[in-house]
Amino acid sequence: MIKIGFECCNAIKSCQPTGIVFTFLGAVNSISKEKEISSFIFYPWFFDKKYFGFKQKDVPIKYLFVCDKLSEKRFFRWWYDKSLISQIGKQDLHILHSFLGLLPLEKRCKYVITIHDLGYLVNKEWGSHISKIFIERLKRSIKNSDKIIAVSEATKNDILKFFSIKEEKIEVVYWGIDEIFRKIKDEEELEKFRFNKRLPSKFILSVGVFHPRKNPLGIIQAFKILRSKYKIDQELVLIGRDCMNGKIHRFVKNEGLSSIVKYYGYVKREELVYFYNLADVFLFPSFYEGFGLPVLESMRCGCSVVCSDRGGLKEIGGNCAYLVDPDSPSSIARGVYQVVSDRFLKSTLIEKGYKFSKRFSWDNYREKMCSLYREIL
């Protein structure tokens, strides 16, 4: 039996978990289905355990508390590391796998780290909240790890660019997409949701926190062009928390678009499925993504996609999405117009995208990861 601990401290912090949180949990659930693996999830005091509730009943996972809320914030990481090291010894773990987080400085077993993206290094302005201490710890974690998991070739290239490390130490393993993202065939059910949420009859959907890296201003500028130049009748639906202190809302108001831009804030993924199914097109012109979960989620729901031609999005979108230049609102607008105005193009993207998204399964992820675990032992 291989005992594996999964560290979730830096991966899970919010009371409103986003897609990456559920992806982490989906990964653990998937790996834990392997009969020869015994799984342990380590969690800190600030994490609400109710988010573990969606795990499958037949998947044996033990949840172990590390560190307490009495620890001073500035000493938290030290206390957390000490607690983690202690649990590694108590549980006699063979492997500690950290998702998006940091590994303890002291090494007591084999270490694996997953890196989702390095946007905070690609553009320092995107990572103004990231401390130098964190970066140094990340360097140590990468150095001390026995295997580094990159979620895309784009992320792998960034790791090689920013860290002195041998390429053979890195493996690309794509995330899986949860089965909750699906095509909903019940039209009556969909229209009921549309009515309850007061959704427009036609709309462009964009999902993601309002953060400069996600290019929300570019989305609004492109939408203005779509309405004024291309005369489309779709409205714009935005989903995600505001991390820009109301800047987007003010910009929309100043551009006179308030009546046709709808904000829905944080949306649970059970409802997000309906938004994907009802949208005319999913727009994701982010400047940088390591993977691009929303792109595959929308494809799985049968929605056509317009996204950036950069990084992980170019890799994930490929010939299944209409690729645009995120620096150019005109390019973004032109891409959206091409898709909403050309039925054949739209249906082709939907068909290709749906088939492509099916490749990203948790079964494939589990097979690859379990093989890597055995390899490093």
Structure description:
- This protein has 377 residues and is α/β, with parallel strands linked by helices.
- The chain folds into 2 domains: 2-176 and 361-376, Rossmann fold, CATH 3.40.50; 187-357, Glycogen Phosphorylase B (Rossmann fold), CATH 3.40.50.
- It contains 14 helices and 13 strands.
- The strands form 2 sheets. Strands 3-2-1-4-5-6-7 form a 7-stranded parallel sheet, sandwiched between helices.
- The protein is globular, with a radius of gyration of 21 Å.
- 43% of the residues are buried.
- The mean pLDDT is 88.
What is the compact description of this entry?
Helix content is 42%, strand content 16%. It is built from 14 helices and 13 strands.
List the helices and strands and how they pair.
Elements: E1 2-7, H1 19-32, E2 37-43, E3 61-65, H2 76-91, E4 95-99, E5 110-115, H3 119-122, H4 132-144, E6 147-150, H5 153-162, E7 170-172, H6 187-197, E8 203-207, H7 216-228, E9 235-239, H8 247-254, E10 261-263, H9 269-278, E11 281-284, H10 293-300, E12 305-308, H11 311-317, E13 322-324, H12 329-341, H13 343-357, H14 362-376
Parallel strand pairs: 1-2, 1-4, 2-3, 4-5, 5-6, 6-7, 8-9, 8-11, 9-10, 11-12, 12-13
Helix pairs in contact: 1-14, 7-12, 10-13
Based on CA atoms alone, the radius of gyration comes out at 21 Å
Question: Averaging pLDDT over every residue, what do you get?
Answer: 88
Sheet of most strands: 7 strands, parallel
Order of helices and strands: EHEEHEEHHEHEHEHEHEHEHEHEHHH
Largest sheet strand order? 3-2-1-4-5-6-7
Q: What is the beta-strand fraction?
A: 15-25%
Q: How much helical structure, as a percent, in the residues?
A: 40-55%
CATH topology of the largest domain: Rossmann fold
Shape: globular
